[in-house]
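Problem statement: downstream parser choked on a complex file, so we are re-checking the raw output for the zinc ion run. The parser issue turned out to be on our end (a line-ending mismatch), but while we're here, posting the original submission so the record is complete.
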Amino acid sequence: MASWDRCSPSRLAARREVAVRAQVVDWIGPFSPFWRERFSALGRTPRQVASVSSLERLPAVGERDVCPDGDPAGAAALVLQTQERGYALHAEGPALRRALWRRAVSRRSYRDLIEAETRPTSYVYAGQALRFPVASTRSDLDIVARVGARLWKVLGLRRSDVVVSALRADATALVSGLSLAALGAGSPMFVPGEDVEALLDTLRIAEPTVLVVPATGGAALLRRLAGAGAAVASLTTVLVAGPPNEQERVEIDEVLGSALGSRALTLAVHVPDGHRLVWGECRDSAGRTGLHTYPDLELVDLVDPETGEFSEDERPGEVVVTQLGMRGSALLRWRTGDLASYVDERPCPGCRRTVPRVVELRGSALVPELALRTGLRPVDLRAVASALSGRPDVSDWRVVLGSSARDGSEEFLVHVLPPPQEVPADVAVAVTRDLRMATGLLPSQVIVAADGSLPSGEGLSPRLLVDP
Ligand SMILES: [Zn+2]
């Protein structure tokens, strides 16, 4: 059988249908408390959405849907809740046969098998406007490690590569995914973190071939290392975790080349918020063909960032992930807050892998952190959009991100166009109140369009504008 990253499109499509059906009908449907409730609210059964094309039309959900009042405890409803009896009813053929055989010979070993598959054993944190735990079972960790070995191939790394990570040791899916990847690939990994002294010592002793730096602040960190005379002659690869935007990438390349005198190749790695698999750029294309994904373990789609729904438009969209074969916190149609230009399903012109690639991804673009007058705050523009859409007292709206002419602080302005019969002052008050409820924040200003015209310009979507 062809490996997953070399499958023909038709073979790939057929295998994905089977995986989608198993995940939705056998796992999410019966065992996800969140989706059980949501399916019944939508009036659909798991079987009705258990194909790639019908799943595409299922409205996506994100952290605000799971934790509507901002309480991270809501995220527990994403974790699959199984029991021994339920497992026997829903496990796939081979796993079930193994389980039944074990139950016949040893009750204890039967329980161990179910636990490995369904009991959460480790947690990382995710979330953008709020912070919530993401649960993994032992079998999930196993998948992440095996995917890590595949990531290594995409990145063009080998077992003999030695990795040093300058990422802060946070409990995130990216930090945990990279260390499981090194484990899965059999490469030694050192994690001194961002402390320059500790990094210098590790670089000298370990002579690494791979250095991991954060996208934000990565160039500054490399500059400090250069200033301290860091030993980087052995480096062949710099992994930039984030992923980097165009400017961050240029700066990192510049410091690497000019200040450190290194010819290492920079490649991006990224885990979308809430997900657990590490996506990477391929070495064969020198990182020019987008983030490579894993079609046997996830579906990646773009949706309208204002509504979370399917869109025919060729515009950039919000990245939405459905996990296949993952347990613990199992994501279905999950809104990641990342924006991407498109998902390319054609074979990669660099490495020829037939895996979908997410192109021009901007991490957390829909939940930007703004230096508001009240402090640094993440603003969930998806929650802003949902509070403004479909209201009887607002015919149309725009949100403009910009900076204040008065003191240079960042702000988000909300422009609304009420229908003629509405009293403008009442609309402004109602919109302000609802935005506060939906986002936990007050907008910098709500402006009622007196002359009937709304601002226009470039932005993240037709209504979410960015003032340059
Ligand atoms: Zn490639």
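For whoever reads this later: The chain has three domains: 4-119, 134-359, 369-466.
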